[in-house]
# Entry
Amino acid sequence: MKVILLSSHVCGIPVLHQLCAAGVLTGVASIDETTPYNLPLEQAADALRVPFRRMARPDFAVELAGWISASGADLVLVFGFRWKIPAALAGIPRFGFINIHFSLLPAFRGPDPLFWQLRSGGLGSGITLHQVDESFDTGPILLQKELAIIPGETRGMCSARFAIETVPLVNELLKALDAGTVAARVQDGQSGSTQRRVQETDLAINWEEHAATDIINLVNAANPDYQGAVTVLKGQEIRILEVTPATAAGQAKHLPGTIVLSHPDQGVFVACLEGSYLRINIIATRDGVISGFKLAAMGIMPGERLSTLRTAQFGDHAKNQPNIKL
# Structure
């Protein structure tokens, strides 16, 4: 069997190594734009002496079709590729195009399923391998593997773990394709869910509505790909990258977002809804990434408030969001 890996994300590296070791990898294709997500993929391919192509969007379908035909590829494995695959290409390789998706479809269709799963606080997830059809993430399911989301892990940690867990699933797929034992299961179009591409407004902490657990989930979902959950301190936007639940005995009732304790030896503690508290461990500002301890040492005082960044304040931030497809 000959396989082309179509990917624009670093999560494709474990599968790249697996396919190369199995002697089935014809090459790797990605988008023409060099990003922090696909550059490591290119470097891994170069280190393994695997052909790596960058394709421009206007011509990528023609170029990819030619490469598939010239190489005799039997399968195109799609893993974190942001562009829609034209239906006309599906019939060129013998086994078509098969996509790797980080959810148990039909739940959490869309470009960044792990963000939404982490943000919602769910602990059950998994990996789906499905045929590519005319829409995103709607093709017949070939294989699935249930995986738990570990409480407290960030999106980056979760995606790295899922990428490794993908390797045995792809091995199983290749064996089943060779043996002719793959059983496709059509997705139920009436069930499941589809999530939009993450917008800047999805990253904002709403201190008046989000409970402490909601904020923890959002912070983990936004780290590292979205640079953290967004809030405002002293009129300046900051990004929160890590928080932990905390207790603050003897504290009077405070408005959510109020800093109730700030000390260089203890860190910064903030009030949330329903009398709960969080300790702010790591934030990112325009001046750098710093700890809560350093934030306290810089003079942040009890009584100051973190506030919600309102929609009108976002401006052009949304244009800078990473274009992720997993």
Summary: The chain has a mean pLDDT of 94. The first helix runs from residue 13 to 21.
